[in-house]
Protein backbone atom coordinates (compact mmCIF):
# COMPACT_ATOMS: atom_id res chain seq x y z
CA UNK A 1 0.00 0.00 0.00
CA UNK A 2 1.26 3.51 -0.87
CA UNK A 3 2.24 5.76 2.03
CA UNK A 4 0.39 8.73 0.53
CA UNK A 5 -3.14 9.28 -0.67
CA UNK A 6 -4.27 11.86 -3.25
CA UNK A 7 -6.76 14.62 -2.54
CA UNK A 8 -8.27 16.07 -5.70
CA UNK A 9 -10.62 18.92 -6.46
CA UNK A 10 -11.89 19.79 -9.92
CA UNK A 11 -12.81 23.04 -11.60
CA UNK A 12 -15.02 22.55 -14.65
CA UNK A 13 -15.53 25.30 -17.20
CA UNK A 14 -18.61 24.65 -19.34
CA UNK A 15 -19.68 26.92 -22.18
CA UNK A 16 -23.42 27.61 -22.08
CA UNK A 17 -25.23 26.94 -25.35
CA UNK A 18 -27.02 30.27 -25.63
CA UNK A 19 -27.49 31.96 -29.00
CA UNK A 20 -25.55 35.10 -28.05
CA UNK A 21 -22.60 35.95 -25.85
CA UNK A 22 -22.60 36.74 -22.14
CA UNK A 23 -22.50 40.54 -22.32
CA UNK A 24 -23.20 41.44 -25.96
CA UNK A 25 -25.40 40.41 -28.90
CA UNK A 26 -22.70 38.66 -30.93
CA UNK A 27 -23.83 35.19 -32.02
CA UNK A 28 -22.00 32.16 -30.64
CA UNK A 29 -20.27 30.28 -33.44
CA UNK A 30 -18.37 27.02 -33.84
CA UNK A 31 -14.78 28.24 -33.54
CA UNK A 32 -13.50 25.07 -35.23
CA UNK A 33 -15.37 25.93 -38.45
CA UNK A 34 -16.03 29.68 -38.50
CA UNK A 35 -13.60 32.16 -40.00
CA UNK A 36 -11.59 33.81 -37.16
CA UNK A 37 -12.64 37.18 -35.74
CA UNK A 38 -15.98 37.36 -37.57
CA UNK A 39 -18.31 37.14 -34.55
CA UNK A 40 -16.92 40.06 -32.57
CA UNK A 41 -18.00 43.55 -31.61
CA UNK A 42 -16.85 46.55 -29.59
CA UNK A 43 -18.12 45.03 -26.31
CA UNK A 44 -16.52 41.57 -26.45
CA UNK A 45 -13.22 43.01 -27.73
CA UNK A 46 -13.11 45.59 -24.94
CA UNK A 47 -13.26 48.84 -26.91
CA UNK A 48 -13.31 52.03 -24.79
CA UNK A 49 -16.71 53.46 -23.95
CA UNK A 50 -18.70 50.24 -24.36
CA UNK A 51 -21.01 48.78 -21.73
CA UNK A 52 -21.80 45.10 -21.09
CA UNK A 53 -25.38 43.83 -20.64
CA UNK A 54 -26.12 40.54 -18.81
CA UNK A 55 -27.55 37.71 -20.95
CA UNK A 56 -30.68 36.56 -19.08
CA UNK A 57 -30.76 33.18 -20.84
CA UNK A 58 -27.24 32.47 -19.61
CA UNK A 59 -28.39 33.25 -16.06
CA UNK A 60 -31.38 30.93 -16.52
CA UNK A 61 -29.11 28.10 -17.72
CA UNK A 62 -26.77 28.67 -14.79
CA UNK A 63 -29.69 28.48 -12.36
CA UNK A 64 -30.82 25.22 -13.96
CA UNK A 65 -27.38 23.70 -13.35
CA UNK A 66 -27.16 25.03 -9.79
CA UNK A 67 -30.57 23.56 -8.92
CA UNK A 68 -29.69 20.20 -10.47
CA UNK A 69 -26.51 20.20 -8.37
CA UNK A 70 -28.54 20.79 -5.19
CA UNK A 71 -26.90 24.17 -4.61
CA UNK A 72 -28.05 27.02 -2.44
CA UNK A 73 -28.84 29.87 -4.83
CA UNK A 74 -27.91 33.40 -3.82
CA UNK A 75 -30.61 35.98 -4.41
CA UNK A 76 -27.87 38.57 -4.87
CA UNK A 77 -24.56 37.97 -6.62
CA UNK A 78 -21.89 40.27 -8.03
CA UNK A 79 -19.86 40.35 -11.21
CA UNK A 80 -16.23 41.26 -10.67
CA UNK A 81 -13.23 42.10 -12.80
CA UNK A 82 -10.49 39.48 -12.68
CA UNK A 83 -7.42 41.37 -13.81
CA UNK A 84 -4.62 39.72 -15.74
CA UNK A 85 -2.89 40.40 -19.03
CA UNK A 86 -2.83 37.81 -21.76
CA UNK A 87 -3.10 38.11 -25.56
CA UNK A 88 -6.47 36.31 -25.72
CA UNK A 89 -8.04 38.71 -23.17
CA UNK A 90 -8.50 42.00 -25.06
CA UNK A 91 -9.99 43.95 -22.12
CA UNK A 92 -7.07 43.13 -19.84
CA UNK A 93 -9.56 41.60 -17.41
CA UNK A 94 -12.18 38.87 -17.37
CA UNK A 95 -15.69 39.49 -16.06
CA UNK A 96 -16.33 36.77 -13.49
CA UNK A 97 -17.80 36.28 -10.02
CA UNK A 98 -15.71 35.98 -6.90
CA UNK A 99 -16.90 37.01 -3.43
CA UNK A 100 -20.62 36.62 -4.15
CA UNK A 101 -21.11 33.76 -6.66
CA UNK A 102 -24.41 32.66 -8.09
CA UNK A 103 -24.67 29.48 -5.98
CA UNK A 104 -22.84 27.53 -3.26
CA UNK A 105 -22.79 24.29 -1.27
CA UNK A 106 -24.20 21.67 -3.61
CA UNK A 107 -23.30 18.10 -4.48
CA UNK A 108 -23.34 15.44 -7.15
CA UNK A 109 -23.63 11.74 -6.29
CA UNK A 110 -21.42 9.44 -8.37
CA UNK A 111 -21.53 5.65 -8.62
CA UNK A 112 -18.57 3.32 -9.03
CA UNK A 113 -18.92 -0.46 -8.97
CA UNK A 114 -22.13 -0.28 -6.95
CA UNK A 115 -20.68 2.22 -4.47
CA UNK A 116 -22.13 5.73 -4.19
CA UNK A 117 -20.21 8.81 -3.13
CA UNK A 118 -21.32 12.42 -2.73
CA UNK A 119 -18.91 14.95 -4.24
CA UNK A 120 -19.35 18.40 -2.75
CA UNK A 121 -19.76 21.42 -5.03
CA UNK A 122 -18.24 24.49 -3.42
CA UNK A 123 -19.51 27.12 -5.86
CA UNK A 124 -21.14 27.70 -9.23
CA UNK A 125 -20.56 31.02 -10.92
CA UNK A 126 -20.88 32.80 -14.26
CA UNK A 127 -18.11 34.38 -16.26
CA UNK A 128 -17.06 35.05 -19.85
CA UNK A 129 -14.72 32.94 -21.92
CA UNK A 130 -11.45 34.16 -23.36
CA UNK A 131 -10.24 34.15 -26.96
CA UNK A 132 -8.33 31.34 -28.60
CA UNK A 133 -4.61 31.32 -29.33
CA UNK A 134 -3.41 29.42 -32.39
CA UNK A 135 0.30 28.78 -32.24
CA UNK A 136 2.49 28.59 -35.33
CA UNK A 137 6.22 28.15 -35.58
CA UNK A 138 7.72 31.43 -34.47
CA UNK A 139 4.44 33.30 -33.91
CA UNK A 140 0.89 33.03 -32.54
CA UNK A 141 -2.50 34.03 -33.95
CA UNK A 142 -5.54 35.17 -31.96
CA UNK A 143 -9.18 34.34 -32.70
CA UNK A 144 -11.57 36.50 -30.65
CA UNK A 145 -14.74 34.64 -31.74
CA UNK A 146 -14.81 32.83 -28.38
CA UNK A 147 -14.34 36.02 -26.33
CA UNK A 148 -17.41 36.68 -24.22
CA UNK A 149 -19.06 33.27 -24.63
CA UNK A 150 -21.03 32.50 -21.42
CA UNK A 151 -18.97 30.22 -19.23
CA UNK A 152 -20.14 28.38 -16.12
CA UNK A 153 -17.45 27.48 -13.61
CA UNK A 154 -18.29 24.61 -11.26
CA UNK A 155 -15.81 24.10 -8.42
CA UNK A 156 -15.83 20.98 -6.24
CA UNK A 157 -14.62 20.49 -2.72
CA UNK A 158 -11.39 18.44 -2.45
CA UNK A 159 -13.51 15.32 -2.02
CA UNK A 160 -12.04 12.95 -4.59
CA UNK A 161 -9.40 10.44 -3.62
CA UNK A 162 -8.62 8.66 -6.87
CA UNK A 163 -8.46 9.15 -10.61
CA UNK A 164 -11.47 6.83 -10.91
CA UNK A 165 -13.59 9.10 -8.71
CA UNK A 166 -12.58 12.15 -10.77
CA UNK A 167 -13.56 10.38 -13.98
CA UNK A 168 -16.91 9.32 -12.47
CA UNK A 169 -17.63 12.91 -11.37
CA UNK A 170 -16.58 14.45 -14.69
CA UNK A 171 -18.61 12.04 -16.80
CA UNK A 172 -21.59 12.40 -14.46
CA UNK A 173 -21.43 16.20 -14.66
CA UNK A 174 -21.14 16.14 -18.46
CA UNK A 175 -24.20 13.89 -18.64
CA UNK A 176 -26.12 16.24 -16.32
CA UNK A 177 -25.28 19.29 -18.46
CA UNK A 178 -26.48 17.47 -21.58
CA UNK A 179 -29.75 16.40 -19.90
CA UNK A 180 -30.32 20.03 -18.91
CA UNK A 181 -29.67 21.04 -22.54
CA UNK A 182 -27.26 23.81 -21.52
CA UNK A 183 -24.06 22.37 -23.01
CA UNK A 184 -23.44 20.10 -26.01
CA UNK A 185 -20.79 18.05 -24.23
CA UNK A 186 -18.66 18.11 -27.40
CA UNK A 187 -15.23 18.07 -25.82
CA UNK A 188 -13.44 18.09 -29.19
CA UNK A 189 -14.72 21.66 -29.61
CA UNK A 190 -13.56 22.69 -26.15
CA UNK A 191 -17.01 23.38 -24.72
CA UNK A 192 -16.00 21.63 -21.47
CA UNK A 193 -12.56 22.05 -19.95
CA UNK A 194 -11.11 20.78 -16.68
CA UNK A 195 -8.60 22.12 -14.19
CA UNK A 196 -7.51 19.78 -11.43
CA UNK A 197 -6.05 20.65 -8.02
CA UNK A 198 -3.91 17.80 -6.73
CA UNK A 199 -2.18 17.25 -3.41
CA UNK A 200 -0.92 14.24 -1.48
CA UNK A 201 -1.01 13.60 2.26
CA UNK A 202 0.22 10.78 4.49
CA UNK A 203 -2.41 8.04 4.32
CA UNK A 204 -4.86 8.17 7.23
CA UNK A 205 -4.21 11.81 8.19
CA UNK A 206 -6.70 14.64 7.88
CA UNK A 207 -4.35 17.39 6.72
CA UNK A 208 -4.04 18.69 3.16
CA UNK A 209 -0.74 18.75 1.35
CA UNK A 210 0.72 21.41 -0.95
CA UNK A 211 -1.35 21.43 -4.11
CA UNK A 212 -0.60 21.96 -7.74
CA UNK A 213 -3.12 22.99 -10.38
CA UNK A 214 -3.17 21.38 -13.81
CA UNK A 215 -4.70 23.75 -16.36
CA UNK A 216 -6.79 23.31 -19.51
CA UNK A 217 -7.46 19.59 -19.73
CA UNK A 218 -9.92 19.29 -22.61
CA UNK A 219 -10.61 15.55 -22.72
CA UNK A 220 -11.24 12.71 -20.29
CA UNK A 221 -8.17 10.95 -21.64
CA UNK A 222 -5.83 13.89 -21.03
CA UNK A 223 -7.38 14.50 -17.60
CA UNK A 224 -6.85 10.89 -16.53
CA UNK A 225 -3.29 10.76 -17.88
CA UNK A 226 -2.34 14.10 -16.33
CA UNK A 227 -3.76 13.20 -12.90
CA UNK A 228 -2.10 9.78 -12.91
CA UNK A 229 1.25 11.31 -13.80
CA UNK A 230 1.02 14.17 -11.29
CA UNK A 231 0.04 11.85 -8.43
CA UNK A 232 3.00 9.60 -9.22
CA UNK A 233 5.33 12.62 -9.53
CA UNK A 234 4.30 14.10 -6.18
CA UNK A 235 4.57 10.72 -4.49
CA UNK A 236 8.12 10.33 -5.78
CA UNK A 237 9.04 13.84 -4.55
CA UNK A 238 7.62 13.23 -1.06
CA UNK A 239 9.03 9.70 -0.75
CA UNK A 240 12.47 11.09 -1.60
CA UNK A 241 12.25 13.65 1.20
CA UNK A 242 11.54 16.59 -1.11
CA UNK A 243 8.84 19.24 -1.00
CA UNK A 244 6.08 19.80 -3.51
CA UNK A 245 6.05 23.36 -4.85
CA UNK A 246 2.71 25.12 -5.19
CA UNK A 247 2.48 26.04 -8.86
CA UNK A 248 0.35 26.00 -11.97
CA UNK A 249 1.12 23.19 -14.38
CA UNK A 250 0.35 22.44 -17.99
CA UNK A 251 -0.05 19.01 -19.53
CA UNK A 252 2.25 17.97 -22.39
CA UNK A 253 0.17 15.30 -24.09
CA UNK A 254 2.96 14.27 -26.45
CA UNK A 255 5.58 13.69 -23.74
CA UNK A 256 3.02 12.55 -21.16
CA UNK A 257 4.28 14.87 -18.40
CA UNK A 258 3.10 17.90 -16.44
CA UNK A 259 5.21 21.02 -16.99
CA UNK A 260 5.52 24.13 -14.77
CA UNK A 261 3.88 27.26 -16.16
CA UNK A 262 4.01 29.76 -13.33
CA UNK A 263 3.88 30.09 -9.58
CA UNK A 264 0.39 29.43 -8.24
CA UNK A 265 -1.67 32.60 -8.15
CA UNK A 266 -3.78 33.56 -5.19
CA UNK A 267 -6.96 35.63 -5.35
CA UNK A 268 -5.15 38.86 -4.52
CA UNK A 269 -2.95 38.42 -7.60
CA UNK A 270 -6.00 39.06 -9.76
CA UNK A 271 -7.03 42.26 -7.91
CA UNK A 272 -10.73 41.35 -7.95
CA UNK A 273 -13.16 44.26 -7.55
CA UNK A 274 -16.86 44.66 -8.44
CA UNK A 275 -17.37 45.58 -12.09
CA UNK A 276 -18.55 49.21 -12.05
CA UNK A 277 -20.44 48.72 -15.34
CA UNK A 278 -22.66 45.87 -14.06
CA UNK A 279 -25.24 46.15 -11.28
CA UNK A 280 -25.67 43.34 -8.70
CA UNK A 281 -27.55 40.35 -10.09
CA UNK A 282 -30.83 39.76 -8.24
CA UNK A 283 -32.69 36.49 -8.84
CA UNK A 284 -36.27 36.47 -7.61
CA UNK A 285 -37.51 33.37 -5.75
CA UNK A 286 -40.50 33.17 -8.13
CA UNK A 287 -38.17 32.82 -11.12
CA UNK A 288 -36.11 30.18 -9.32
CA UNK A 289 -39.26 28.18 -8.63
CA UNK A 290 -40.37 28.52 -12.25
CA UNK A 291 -37.01 27.20 -13.45
CA UNK A 292 -37.08 24.39 -10.88
CA UNK A 293 -40.48 23.23 -12.10
CA UNK A 294 -39.19 23.09 -15.70
CA UNK A 295 -36.25 20.80 -14.95
CA UNK A 296 -36.32 17.49 -16.86
CA UNK A 297 -35.97 14.08 -15.25
CA UNK A 298 -32.28 13.92 -14.37
CA UNK A 299 -29.93 10.96 -14.98
CA UNK A 300 -30.02 9.58 -11.42
CA UNK A 301 -33.81 9.60 -11.27
CA UNK A 302 -34.08 8.06 -14.72
CA UNK A 303 -31.64 5.26 -13.82
CA UNK A 304 -33.59 4.48 -10.68
CA UNK A 305 -36.86 4.38 -12.61
CA UNK A 306 -35.42 2.08 -15.28
CA UNK A 307 -34.35 -0.35 -12.56
CA UNK A 308 -37.43 -0.23 -10.32
CA UNK A 309 -40.18 0.19 -12.91
CA UNK A 310 -38.78 -1.50 -16.01
CA UNK A 311 -36.75 -4.25 -14.34
CA UNK A 312 -33.42 -3.35 -15.96
CA UNK A 313 -30.15 -4.23 -14.29
CA UNK A 314 -28.23 -1.28 -12.77
CA UNK A 315 -25.55 -1.73 -15.44
CA UNK A 316 -28.05 -1.68 -18.32
CA UNK A 317 -29.83 1.32 -16.81
CA UNK A 318 -26.54 3.20 -16.48
CA UNK A 319 -25.63 2.43 -20.09
CA UNK A 320 -28.99 3.55 -21.47
CA UNK A 321 -29.13 6.77 -19.44
CA UNK A 322 -25.53 7.94 -19.93
CA UNK A 323 -26.66 10.16 -22.82
CA UNK A 324 -30.06 11.86 -23.08
CA UNK A 325 -30.42 10.88 -26.75
CA UNK A 326 -29.94 7.20 -25.87
CA UNK A 327 -32.47 7.33 -23.04
CA UNK A 328 -35.03 9.09 -25.25
CA UNK A 329 -34.50 6.55 -28.06
CA UNK A 330 -34.99 3.65 -25.63
CA UNK A 331 -38.16 5.08 -24.13
CA UNK A 332 -39.64 5.73 -27.57
CA UNK A 333 -38.81 2.17 -28.65
CA UNK A 334 -40.45 0.49 -25.65
CA UNK A 335 -43.51 2.71 -26.04
CA UNK A 336 -43.85 1.47 -29.63
CA UNK A 337 -43.57 -2.18 -28.56
CA UNK A 338 -45.83 -2.48 -25.49
CA UNK A 339 -46.25 -6.24 -25.96
CA UNK A 340 -42.51 -6.83 -25.67
CA UNK A 341 -40.51 -6.78 -22.44
CA UNK A 342 -38.36 -3.64 -22.02
CA UNK A 343 -35.54 -6.04 -21.09
CA UNK A 344 -35.50 -7.39 -24.65
CA UNK A 345 -35.34 -3.90 -26.16
CA UNK A 346 -32.60 -2.93 -23.69
CA UNK A 347 -30.61 -6.05 -24.62
CA UNK A 348 -30.66 -5.25 -28.33
CA UNK A 349 -30.06 -1.54 -27.88
CA UNK A 350 -27.22 -1.72 -25.33
CA UNK A 351 -25.62 -4.61 -27.19
CA UNK A 352 -25.68 -4.82 -30.99
CA UNK A 353 -27.11 -1.36 -31.70
CA UNK A 354 -24.61 0.49 -29.48
CA UNK A 355 -21.80 -1.61 -30.98
CA UNK A 356 -22.71 -0.32 -34.45
CA UNK A 357 -23.07 3.25 -33.16
CA UNK A 358 -19.68 3.20 -31.43
CA UNK A 359 -17.91 1.53 -34.32
CA UNK A 360 -19.18 4.08 -36.84
CA UNK A 361 -18.92 7.14 -34.59
CA UNK A 362 -22.50 8.06 -35.51
CA UNK A 363 -24.68 9.97 -33.07
CA UNK A 364 -27.77 8.03 -32.06
CA UNK A 365 -30.11 10.83 -33.10
CA UNK A 366 -28.56 10.75 -36.60
CA UNK A 367 -28.70 6.97 -36.97
CA UNK A 368 -30.74 5.48 -39.83
CA UNK A 369 -32.21 3.06 -37.29
CA UNK A 370 -35.34 4.66 -35.84
CA UNK A 371 -36.99 3.75 -32.51
CA UNK A 372 -39.88 2.33 -34.57
CA UNK A 373 -37.51 0.13 -36.58
CA UNK A 374 -35.78 -1.21 -33.47
CA UNK A 375 -39.12 -1.89 -31.78
CA UNK A 376 -40.34 -3.80 -34.85
CA UNK A 377 -37.11 -5.78 -35.10
CA UNK A 378 -37.16 -6.86 -31.45
CA UNK A 379 -40.84 -7.78 -31.78
CA UNK A 380 -40.09 -9.99 -34.79
CA UNK A 381 -37.33 -11.80 -32.89
CA UNK A 382 -39.36 -12.22 -29.72
CA UNK A 383 -42.40 -13.51 -31.62
CA UNK A 384 -40.33 -16.02 -33.57
CA UNK A 385 -40.68 -14.47 -37.02
CA UNK A 386 -36.91 -14.37 -37.28
CA UNK A 387 -34.17 -15.69 -35.00
CA UNK A 388 -31.49 -13.70 -33.19
CA UNK A 389 -28.68 -14.22 -35.77
CA UNK A 390 -31.02 -13.10 -38.53
CA UNK A 391 -32.03 -10.14 -36.36
CA UNK A 392 -28.39 -9.04 -36.19
CA UNK A 393 -28.14 -9.27 -39.97
CA UNK A 394 -31.28 -7.17 -40.38
CA UNK A 395 -30.04 -4.61 -37.85
CA UNK A 396 -26.82 -4.23 -39.84
CA UNK A 397 -28.80 -3.53 -43.02
CA UNK A 398 -31.03 -1.04 -41.19
CA UNK A 399 -27.99 0.76 -39.79
CA UNK A 400 -26.37 1.02 -43.23
CA UNK A 401 -29.44 1.77 -45.34
CA UNK A 402 -32.40 2.52 -43.08
CA UNK A 403 -35.89 1.23 -43.80
CA UNK A 404 -38.23 -1.17 -42.03
CA UNK A 405 -37.23 -4.63 -40.70
CA UNK A 406 -40.02 -6.54 -42.48
CA UNK A 407 -39.03 -4.99 -45.81
CA UNK A 408 -35.41 -6.09 -45.26
CA UNK A 409 -36.48 -9.62 -44.29
CA UNK A 410 -38.69 -9.90 -47.36
CA UNK A 411 -36.11 -8.45 -49.75
CA UNK A 412 -33.32 -10.74 -48.53
CA UNK A 413 -35.59 -13.76 -47.96
CA UNK A 414 -34.61 -14.01 -44.29
CA UNK A 415 -37.88 -15.20 -42.78
CA UNK A 416 -37.41 -17.88 -40.15
CA UNK A 417 -37.64 -21.52 -41.19
CA UNK A 418 -39.85 -23.32 -38.67
CA UNK A 419 -41.32 -26.08 -40.84
CA UNK A 420 -40.50 -29.29 -38.95
CA UNK A 421 -40.62 -31.53 -42.02
CA UNK A 422 -38.16 -29.31 -43.90
CA UNK A 423 -35.84 -29.09 -40.88
CA UNK A 424 -36.04 -32.89 -40.39
CA UNK A 425 -34.95 -33.33 -44.00
CA UNK A 426 -31.98 -30.95 -43.56
CA UNK A 427 -30.96 -32.65 -40.28
CA UNK A 428 -31.06 -36.09 -41.98
CA UNK A 429 -28.81 -34.80 -44.79
CA UNK A 430 -26.33 -33.36 -42.27
CA UNK A 431 -26.15 -36.62 -40.25
CA UNK A 432 -25.78 -38.66 -43.43
CA UNK A 433 -22.92 -36.40 -44.61
CA UNK A 434 -20.98 -36.57 -41.31
CA UNK A 435 -20.94 -40.21 -40.13
CA UNK A 436 -17.68 -39.80 -38.19
CA UNK A 437 -19.14 -37.02 -36.05
CA UNK A 438 -22.29 -39.07 -35.46
CA UNK A 439 -20.16 -42.00 -34.24
CA UNK A 440 -18.24 -39.68 -31.91
CA UNK A 441 -21.52 -38.43 -30.46
CA UNK A 442 -22.74 -41.93 -29.75
CA UNK A 443 -19.33 -42.78 -28.28
CA UNK A 444 -19.98 -40.18 -25.59
CA UNK A 445 -18.65 -36.93 -27.07
CA UNK A 446 -21.85 -34.94 -26.49
CA UNK A 447 -20.29 -31.61 -27.50
CA UNK A 448 -20.56 -32.82 -31.10
CA UNK A 449 -24.24 -31.90 -30.84
CA UNK A 450 -23.32 -28.20 -30.87
CA UNK A 451 -21.10 -28.72 -33.91
CA UNK A 452 -23.93 -30.47 -35.77
CA UNK A 453 -26.31 -27.71 -34.70
CA UNK A 454 -23.93 -25.20 -36.28
CA UNK A 455 -23.87 -27.21 -39.52
CA UNK A 456 -27.67 -27.09 -39.76
CA UNK A 457 -27.73 -23.35 -39.08
CA UNK A 458 -25.04 -22.80 -41.70
CA UNK A 459 -26.98 -24.91 -44.19
CA UNK A 460 -30.07 -22.72 -43.63
CA UNK A 461 -28.08 -19.45 -43.62
CA UNK A 462 -29.09 -18.94 -39.99
CA UNK A 463 -32.79 -18.89 -40.81
CA UNK A 464 -33.80 -22.12 -39.04
CA UNK A 465 -35.61 -21.82 -35.71
CA UNK A 466 -32.95 -22.80 -33.14
CA UNK A 467 -35.34 -24.63 -30.80
CA UNK A 468 -36.85 -26.64 -33.65
CA UNK A 469 -33.38 -27.53 -34.96
CA UNK A 470 -32.18 -28.66 -31.57
CA UNK A 471 -35.27 -30.82 -31.02
CA UNK A 472 -34.98 -32.37 -34.49
CA UNK A 473 -31.27 -33.09 -34.00
CA UNK A 474 -31.75 -34.76 -30.62
CA UNK A 475 -34.58 -36.96 -31.90
CA UNK A 476 -32.71 -37.91 -35.06
CA UNK A 477 -29.57 -38.82 -33.12
CA UNK A 478 -31.60 -40.87 -30.68
CA UNK A 479 -33.25 -42.81 -33.53
CA UNK A 480 -29.88 -43.15 -35.24
CA UNK A 481 -28.33 -44.53 -32.07
CA UNK A 482 -31.16 -46.97 -31.46
CA UNK A 483 -30.88 -48.30 -35.02
CA UNK A 484 -27.14 -48.85 -34.56
CA UNK A 485 -27.72 -50.72 -31.31
CA UNK A 486 -30.40 -52.99 -32.81
CA UNK A 487 -28.27 -53.92 -35.82
CA UNK A 488 -27.25 -57.68 -35.75
Q: Could you characterize what this model shows?
A:
The chain is about 40% helix and about 20% strand. It has about 500 residues and is of the alpha+beta class. α9 (about 370-380) packs antiparallel against α10, α12 packs across α14 and α14 (about 450-460) crosses α15. It folds into three domains: about 5-290, no CATH class; about 295-410, no CATH class; about 420-485, Arc Repressor Mutant, subunit A. It has 15 helices and 16 strands. The mean pLDDT is about 90. The longest helix has 21 residues, at about 465-485. A nine-stranded mixed beta sheet has the order 2-6-7-10-1-11-12-13-14. It has a three-stranded antiparallel beta sheet with strand order 5-4-15, with no helix packed on it. Strands 3-16 form a two-stranded antiparallel sheet. The chain has helices spanning about 55-70, 165-180, 220-240, 285-295, 300-310, 315-320, 325-335, 340-360, 370-380, 390-400, 405-410, 420-435, 435-440, 450-460, 465-485; strands at about 5-15, 70-75, 75, 80-85, 95, 105-110, 115-130, 130-135, 140-145, 150-155, 190-200, 210-215, 245-250, 255-265, 275, 280. It is elongated, with a radius of gyration of 30 Å.
Amino acid sequence: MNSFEPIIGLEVHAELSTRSKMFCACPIVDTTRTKPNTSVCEVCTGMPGTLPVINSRAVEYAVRVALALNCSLQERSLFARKNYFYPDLPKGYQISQYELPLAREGWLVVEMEGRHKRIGVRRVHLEEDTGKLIHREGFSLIDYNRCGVPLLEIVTEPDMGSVEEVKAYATGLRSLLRYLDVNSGDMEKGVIRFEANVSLRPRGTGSLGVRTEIKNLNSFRSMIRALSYEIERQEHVLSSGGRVVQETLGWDDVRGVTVPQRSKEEAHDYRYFPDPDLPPLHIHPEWIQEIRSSLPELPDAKRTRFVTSLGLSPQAAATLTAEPDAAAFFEQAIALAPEISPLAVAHWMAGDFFALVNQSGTEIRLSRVTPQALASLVTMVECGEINAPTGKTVLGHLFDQGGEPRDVVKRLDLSQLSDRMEIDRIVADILRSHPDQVRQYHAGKKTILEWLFGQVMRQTSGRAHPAVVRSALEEALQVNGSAATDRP
